[in-house]
Automatic annotation (TrEMBL):
Organism this protein belongs to: Deinococcus aquiradiocola
UniProt domain Enolpyruvate transferase: residue ranges: 12-409
Enzyme Commission code(s) on record: 2.5.1.7
Entry protein name: UDP-N-acetylglucosamine 1-carboxyvinyltransferase
Gene coding for it: murA
Pathway given in the UniProt record: Cell wall biogenesis; peptidoglycan biosynthesis
A Pfam family this chain is assigned to: EPSP_synthase
InterPro entries: Enolpyruvate_Tfrase_dom, Enolpyruvate_Tfrase_sf, MurA_subfamily, RNA3'P_cycl/enolpyr_Trfase_a/b, UDP_GlcNAc_COvinyl_MurA
One Gene Ontology CC term in the entry: cytoplasm
Gene3D superfamilies per the UniProt record, alphabetical: Enolpyruvate transferase domain
Keywords: Cell cycle, Cell division, Cell shape, Cell wall biogenesis/degradation, Cytoplasm, Peptidoglycan synthesis, Pyruvate, Transferase
Catalytic residues (UniProt): C120
Residues annotated as binding UDP-N-acetyl-alpha-D-glucosamine: R96, R125, P126, V127, D128, Q129, D309, V331
Residues noted as binding phosphoenolpyruvate in the record, renumbered to the chain: K25, N26
Length: 428
């Protein structure tokens, strides 16, 4: 069995030059699932080579998709027939995004059995909105022993008002309604970039979804989708992680291949803290070399609010900024697994209820362990800023979302290595 080695970072170096942002993991995953709706080949540009992508490819392969890679980031998917309508626990347990195969299977095959999904372990992540939306639109859905069994008994139709803004449940409901003869109205729908990108992809294949980027979506069923070609948006969470890393190391870094309009909540916060941000259409220059940064308060929210997926990294940055900052995650209130690890590096973070109160202090290197993907990214940010060497274990989580991370950090001046995996023995 291959065992991932820890990443080793010697901190205190400034970052410089250009960092090419990878394509978006969280936009690519639902688009790969959405490709199940077409019988024709679909060619996707901008698919990052990440473990989450390989996991979703295992799932769609199980359902009947054949895929071929072309070059590093182009993927052709072809699902002439659905071969299975069941997605077992062994596949779904690895990743949250897998639950939206339910909507795709309902559309294409009229039935689906899907296990309760997995994903990062930072608290309760219910699927009640997926279930309520399906039922409101006429799907017959039962849950037994952690398995959801869904069946389309008539064309999907009607209206559902989401009780909160949810990316995954909005995507699931859209997917279920794309193929058919009914019309579905989704209110209080998510306007997240990953929802908008999935709609753009589906409409490019002939789907009829109106209202992308607004809170009311109208999905009018169509008989079939054609094949096509589509380019996935850049990864705003990876971009955000690097913008924060530049600030934490008081560096000047330019991100290329980025969508500055997707980064506004973070850009505004960093500007408020004293970081200079310059945008072009597809680059962002982050300059934190002027010296003193100011503390700030953050509350995460749905897009276009401050993303929960960069809250841990931002908390790591604020742990280096003199003064008091207060961070509250309004989306995942218990997303706090980074805190205990940052303590090992000298961070002064007090948690009371769901709130982190952070007193900035110099950080030092230490052995630490990532417990989830963005907690891992926060440890990388802290390690880049800290004096001395940090070894970060739990790379399996970081590799879910960051492509060849150590190598790409080295290219912008970091001292970061992740030795090649070794063959583990039975004793490991
Ligand atoms: C693979 C992927 O793209 N994952 C992202 C996606 O997750 P995911 O799509 O799972 O997150 P949601 O947008 O659905 O969750 C938002 C909020 O709604 C709640 N909720 C959601 C569904 C539901 O049925 N009931 C319910 O209560 C959640 O607990 C959370 O508090 O969006 C999250 C919020 O931006 C990100 O942190 C994840 O990285
Ligand atoms: C939390 C994430 O992924 P997931 O929803 O799959 O756990 C993430 O990408 O930050």
């Amino acid at each position: 069995m291959l065992q991932l080695t820890p990443m080793q970072i010697v901190g205190g170096r400034t970052l410089k030059g250009e960092y090419a942002v990878q394509p978006s993991k969280n936009a690519a995953l639902p688009i790969i699932v959405a490709s199940l709706l077409s019988r024709e080949p679909v060619r996707l540009h901008g698919i990052p080579r990440l473990s989450d992508i390989y996991t979703i490819l295992d799932i769609v392969t199980h359902l009947g998709t054949r895929h071929t890679w072309e070059g590093p980031n182009t993927l052709t998917l072809h699902t002439p027939d659905i071969l299975n309508t069941e997605t077992p626990y062994s596949l779904v347990s690895k990743m949250r995004a897998s639950f939206i195969v339910m909507g795709a299977l309902l559309s294409r095959a009229g039935e689906a059995t899907v296990s309760m999904p997995g994903g990062c372990a930072f608290g309760h992540r219910p699927v009640d909105q997926h279930v309520k939306a399906f039922r409101a639109l006429g799907v017959d859905l039962d849950e037994e022993g952690g398995n959801f069994e869904a069946r389309r008994v008539a064309p999907l139709g009607g209206r559902y008002v989401f009780e909160m803004l949810t990316v995954g449940a909005t995507q699931n409901a859209i997917l279920a309604a794309v193929l058919g003869t009914g019309q579905v109205v989704l209110e209080n729908a998510s306007i997240d970039t990953d929802v908008v990108d999935m709609i753009g992809f589906l409409n490019s294949l002939g789907a009829n979804i109106e209202g992308a980027g607004t809170h009311t979506l109208v999905v009018t069923g169509v008989a079939s989708l054609r094949g096509g070609e589509y380019t996935v948006i850049p990864d705003r969470i990876e971009a955000g992680t690097l913008m924060i890393a530049a600030a934490a190391t008081r560096s000047h870094l330019t991100l290329t291949g980025v969508r500055p309009d997707h980064m506004r909540a973070l850009s505004m916060k960093l500007t408020e803290m004293g970081v200079s941000i310059l945008e072009t259409d597809d680059t962002l220059s982050v300059n934190a070399t002027s010296g003193v940064l100011l503390p700030t308060d953050i509350t995460t929210g749905s897009f276009p609010g401050f993303p929960t997926d960069i809250q841990p990294q931002m908390s790591a940055l604020l742990a280096t900024v003199p003064g008091t900052s207060v961070v509250t995650d309004g989306v995942y209130t218990d997303r706090l697994t980074h805190v205990v690890e940052l303590h090992r590096m000298g961070a002064n973070i007090k948690v009371s209820g769901h709130t982190q109160t952070i007193q900035g202090a110099p950080l030092h290197g230490a052995p630490v362990k990532a417990a989830d993907i963005r907690a891992g990214a926060a440890l990388v940010v802290a390690a880049l800023a800290a004096e001395g060497e940090t070894t970060i274990d739990g790379m399996v989580y970081i590799n879910r979302g960051y492509e060849r991370f150590a190598e790409r950090l080295r290219a912008i001046g970091a001292s970061a290595v992740q030795p090649e995996p070794v063959l583990a023995t039975a004793m490991d």
